[in-house]
Amino acid sequence: MNTLVDTQGQEFIDCLGGFGIFNVGHRNPVVVSAVQNQLAKQPLHSQELLDPLRAMLAKTLAALTPGKLKYSFFCNSGTESVEAALKLAKAYQSPRGKFTFIATSGAFHGKSLGALSATAKSTFRRPFMPLLPGFRHVPFGNIDAMSMAFSEGKKTGDEIAAVILEPIQGEGGVILPPQGYLTEVRKLCDEFGALMILDEVQTGMGRTGKMFACEHENVQPDILCLAKALGGGVMPIGATIATEEVFSVLFDNPFLHTTTFGGNPLACAAALATINVLLEQNLPAQAEQKGDTLLDGFRQLAREYPNLVHDARGKGMLMAIEFVDNETGYRFASEMFRQRVLVAGTLNNAKTIRIEPPLTLTIELCEQVLKSARNALAAMQVSVEEV
């Protein structure tokens, strides 16, 4: 469940994890069985009829997510989840005269038009300019810059509707904000009457050592975005979970935002099975323990190869090794492939190699990954010395 086999029979340890979808491993038998059983009953649903699995998943997420998060909108991907969050925030705040969103530098929220407007990489944005108006970007982790954006909006009459951010920036290079940052952002949102949208598409479902990364600071968002690992690596599914107060803007007309395949029986069956596996095997706690082992090893390698490795960082099983430049990062990924370990750079930061294995990765495989990383760096060091 933690490895892949190519067409020639070579086995590779997966430290890509589908960029966060394989939290419960590849082909998890519990998830696969749930989908197969549902496939024999009713693969897709009729929008005009009640679907018990969708209701069960919504109720489960209401119990699982922090704070007053209660109602779910189901979709098929992370970017769809973000789009729903932005539209919910707009519908809630527009009558209050608040139209502007704050996002952060280095953010990645998806590539559909609304999500792309919150994303912060010019490569993805420029071909589609102009994007949606009303988005400001401030430095991630800088609470003073966030506070200033709120204050300026208040002074100019361009008040903030919502803040959207990742608890840990994934595609930005696994960037962790200072401790307490999310707490301070929550306070600003409360002070200025803004909504807090947390994009946990990559950090959610146990990845960082808690079921949701915001739980490390006991922060409760108004809207939470999930996808990737929610489907157990078997089915695509996304979810946008909001408080009753926010979600109530759809009560009078739930057809304001819909999707044909969102919350289909196969996807809901996969999600329910995935949650059961995460809880029964206590995978968030395993992610914390194994992540500590891996990160300690990567930091030791960073100390041994300072001319190659700039930093090693992470939380739980979401880690990154940052190299001195892009070329060195590419070389490391190539050397790891020779060692039969799959890794890759992040979308917004090519010199940063992401380490995002399944949470089910065994201790033995963790040790093998560290051994392979040491071998890769040693080979790279020899090449540097020969030049």
TrEMBL record:
Transmembrane segments: none annotated. This is Putrescine aminotransferase. One of its GO terms (biological process) is putrescine catabolic process. GO terms for molecular function: identical protein binding; putrescine--2-oxoglutarate transaminase activity; pyridoxal phosphate binding. NCBIfam families: PRK11522.1, putres_am_tran. InterPro entries: Aminotrans_3, Aminotrans_3_PPA_site, Class-III_PLP-dep_AT, Putrescine_aminotransferase, PyrdxlP-dep_Trfase, PyrdxlP-dep_Trfase_major, PyrdxlP-dep_Trfase_small. Its cofactor is pyridoxal 5'-phosphate. Gene3D superfamilies: Aspartate Aminotransferase, domain 1, Type I PLP-dependent aspartate aminotransferase-like (Major domain). Its EC number is 2.6.1.82. SUPFAM superfamilies: PLP-dependent transferases. Keywords: Aminotransferase, Pyridoxal phosphate, Transferase. Belongs to the class-III pyridoxal-phosphate-dependent aminotransferase family.
